[in-house]
UniProtKB/TrEMBL annotation:
This is Uncharacterized protein. Residues 1-12 have a biased composition (Polar residues). Residues 1-30 are annotated as: Disordered.
Length: 118
């Protein structure tokens, strides 16, 4: 015996219960949805295809949040600090500049050790 489940002929819309009868295709077979849901789908498709394609925003270069140095930067700083300026800790920390200097003798010695390298 060939029985047809009553829900087989109802719209198979999954988001809400819909008891409307399923629509027929041109070939005679059943669509999954009723006429109402097919019209809604066609309207949504027309809206989304008529929208202009969004223009992708130009990419901006990210700015480094922390300092990064390579070997050439260190060499340049070494040359600038030691060779070009010809400054040592005693010259830098004389009596006139010690009150305005943000560096202590220890700070300056640490910087010199860093830039002199191995």
């Amino acid at each position: 015996m060939n029985t047809v489940n009553p829900t087989d002929n109802e719209c198979q819309y999954t988001y809400k219960p819909c008891t409307n009868p399923r629509s027929r295709k041109k070939s005679g077979s059943l669509h999954s949805f009723c006429e109402k849901r097919l019209r809604e789908a066609d309207a949504m498709r027309a809206i989304t295809t008529s929208r202009p394609t969004p223009i992708e925003p130009t990419r901006t270069r990210s700015i480094a949040t922390s300092a990064s140095f390579d070997v050439e930067d260190i060499r340049f700083l070494n040359e600038w600090l030691l060779d070009t300026n010809n400054v040592d800790a005693d010259d830098y920390l004389d009596e006139t500049s010690s009150s305005t200097s943000p560096l202590t003798a220890e700070d300056y010695a640490i910087l010199c050790d860093i830039f002199r390298g191995p």
